[in-house]
Each structure stands twice: as structure tokens, then as C-alpha cells.
């Protein structure tokens, strides 16, 4: 009963919902096309145009693109063990990577560029930050490279957890972009347990291709990487008292203001401590004659039964 429901995900107006396990993308498209399935959040990006406006199934289906928690960022190892302790080299690396082109090549319209370690769905994100984002410019990257300790190039190790084609493609693009600066990137893809172990070794990597997530606020994404409390350094080996002070201010109850978040955002950019990459969207394809709403849980997963039926 509606009056007993505490969250939208508890509201139901149907007696039975049938869940079908469809593991192959072509089978999922066929199941929707033949009306065996009325809703799916697992349609392949390649098949979405068939259901979107103008597609062959658009008279029956709607398509919604939903921001998710699987965004990616490039994290530099700022310890003396890595060439990236050099701020100018970090800036050269970041300026060389064209995230807009990466998004277009790998996600098309099914994703967005992230301008920070996190994305725009959080309430403490400020769209005004997008105006000051460094973007990509090879000439600027070359200028920073010339000012660095490695004007003629260097070798870097990019480590990441294995098992996702998108990550492999992103790593290869990063490798190509940095090759323009005579930076040789060795890609090391490893199981998640080995990746986490390697992450704690300042001599084990130079660049990390990492996910980020938090269910509530952007500051809680940033804390995971940049709060040095108890460690003495951030997770990417930054020992910066001014950074720590800004993190603590922005994370406090009274200090968590738009001004404090902007101050921290600018500081992270000014010192090239992290670089946002891209974020794929989830898609939801649903029969618009039968379904008019649905609910995602805090992990951006479709909540079974949390639908509004016509």
C-alpha cells in the first residue's frame, strides 16, 4: 500500500513481474523487438539507435540514458619513485589527452566527459567548473614537457584492473596521445587483487586508470583518493599539507560549501593531481505503452519491481 511505502522503490501497482535472464546482447535486442521483454537496462550501445527516436522500434519503446557510477579518471603517482613527481610533466600528460575525442570514439552519445575526479550527478558539483577545465591542447602539452625534467621524453607504466574492454581501449588511446610527447607508456592490466596490491607500491606504477564512486556527494569521492589522514600521503603519494587542509575543510559539516569545493577543485587542477576522463551512461529501454517509470537503487542498478505501470 502506498501509505506504507518509505521509498519510491517500494511502490508497486502490479501483482506479478517476470524477470528473464538474457546474457547475449543480440538476444536482448531480439527479446525487446519481439515483445518477449518490456524493459531492459542492458541493451548494447550499438543497438540503442534501433529503439531511440527514429529507430525501427521507436513507436513501441522509449530510451533513457542514465548517469551511472562507473566513471574513470587518470591518477598520477606523485612520489619520487615516479617521473610524475614533476608537476610540469603531469600537466604535459593531462594536456595531451583529448577526453572529448575519447568520449566520441568510445561512447558516442552514450556517455560524457568528466572534468574532475567525479561527475555532474552529485549535488556539490558546480557546472561553472567546466569553464576553467584544462581540456586538451598538444601545443600546451609540449610547452609543459619542455619545462619538465624530461623534455626529451620518458617511460611510464600505466596499471589498471583487467576484465573490461572499455578500459583496454582507453589505455590504448592514452598510450597513443602520450606517444606524441615521446612518452612511452607500458600498459599493465592485472586482476583486481593484484592491482590493489600494486596500487600501494610507489615503485609499481606511474599512472592509474581508476574508477570512482560514492552514493551521495562528490567530496566523498575526493576523500577516497586525497584524504591523507593516518597515511601521511594521499593514495597517489601526495604529501601536501595545504591540500589536506582544503580536503578537511570541504569535508566538514560547516565547511562543506560551494566556495570550499571550488577552492579544492582549483587546487587539484593547478597541481595536476588527478585528471577526469569519461563516463558511460546506463541505458533503459522500455515499452512506453506499458511502463511510465522505474527506479534505480543507490548503486545505479535497476531495482526489480520498482516500476510504474500504465
What does this structure look like?
This protein starts with 24 loop residues before the first helix and ends with a strand. It has 310 residues and is an alpha+beta fold. Helix 3 runs antiparallel to helix 5, helix 8 packs antiparallel against helix 9 and helix 9 runs antiparallel to helix 10. The protein is built from ten helices and eleven strands. Strand 5, helix 6 and strand 6 form a beta-alpha-beta unit. Helix content is 32%, strand content 21%. The model has no long low-confidence stretch (mean pLDDT 88). The strands form three sheets. It has a five-stranded mixed sheet, sandwiched between helices.
Task: Put the structure in a nutshell.
Helix content is 32%, strand content 21%. The protein is of the alpha+beta class and 310 residues long.
Jot down its keywords.
four-stranded antiparallel sheet, 10 helices, 21% strand, 310 residues, five-stranded mixed sheet, 11 strands, alpha+beta
Layout of secondary structure:
Elements: H1 25-33, E1 39-40, H2 48-51, E2 61-67, E3 71-76, H3 87-96, H4 99-107, E4 111-113, H5 138-147, E5 154-161, H6 165-179, E6 183-190, H7 192-199, E7 207-212, H8 218-226, H9 241-251, H10 258-270, E8 275-276, E9 278-287, E10 291-296, E11 302-309
Parallel strand pairs: 5-6, 5-7
Antiparallel strand pairs: 1-9, 2-9, 3-7, 3-8, 4-9, 10-11
The string of secondary-structure elements, in order, is HEHEEHHEHEHEHEHHHEEEE
* Radius of gyration, whole Å: 22 Å
Q: How would you describe the shape?
A: globular
Distance between the termini: 17 Å
Structural class: alpha+beta
Amino acid at each position: 500500500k502506498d501509505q506504507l511505502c518509505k521509498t519510491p522503490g517500494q511502490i508497486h501497482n502490479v501483482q506479478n513481474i517476470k524477470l528473464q535472464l538474457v546474457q547475449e546482447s543480440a538476444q536482448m535486442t531480439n527479446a525487446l523487438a519481439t515483445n518477449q521483454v518490456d524493459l531492459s537496462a542492458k541493451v548494447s550501445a550499438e543497438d540503442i539507435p534501433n529503439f531511440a527516436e527514429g529507430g525501427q522500434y521507436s513507436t513501441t519503446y522509449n530510451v533513457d540514458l542514465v548517469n551511472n557510477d562507473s566513471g574513470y579518471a587518470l591518477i598520477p603517482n606523485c612520489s619520487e619513485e615516479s617521473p610524475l613527481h614533476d608537476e610540469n610533466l603531469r600537466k604535459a600528460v593531462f594536456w595531451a589527452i583529448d577526453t572529448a575525442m575519447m568520449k566520441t570514439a568510445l561512447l558516442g552519445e552514450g556517455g560524457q566527459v568528466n572534468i574532475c575526479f567525479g561527475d555532474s550527478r552529485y549535488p556539490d558539483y558546480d557546472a561553472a567548473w567546466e569553464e576553467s577545465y584544462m581540456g586538451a591542447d598538444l601545443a600546451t602539452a609540449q610547452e609543459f614537457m619542455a619545462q619538465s625534467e624530461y623534455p626529451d621524453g620518458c617511460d611510464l607504466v600505466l596499471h589498471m584492473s583487467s576484465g573490461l574492454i572499455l578500459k583496454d581501449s582507453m589505455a590504448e588511446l592514452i598510450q597513443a596521445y602520450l606517444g606524441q610527447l615521446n612518452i612511452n607508456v607500458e600498459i599493465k592490466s592485472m586482476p583486481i587483487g593484484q592491482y590493489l596490491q600494486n596500487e600501494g607500491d610507489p615503485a609499481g606504477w606511474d599512472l592509474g586508470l581508476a574508477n570512482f564512486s560514492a552514493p551521495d556527494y562528490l567530496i566523498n569521492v575526493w576523500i577516497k583518493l586525497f584524504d591523507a589522514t593516518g597515511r601521511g600521503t594521499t593514495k597517489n603519494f601526495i604529501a601536501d599539507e595545504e591540500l589536506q587542509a582544503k580536503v578537511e575543510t570541504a569535508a566538514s559539516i560547516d565547511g562543506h560549501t560551494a566556495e570550499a569545493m571550488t577552492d579544492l577543485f582549483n587546487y587539484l587542477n593547478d597541481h595536476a593531481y588527478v585528471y577526469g576522463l569519461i563516463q558511460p551512461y546506463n541505458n533503459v529501454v522500455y515499452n512506453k505503452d506499458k511502463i511510465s517509470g522505474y527506479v534505480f537503487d543507490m548503486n545505479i542498478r535497476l531495482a526489480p519491481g520498482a516500476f510504474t505501470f500504465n
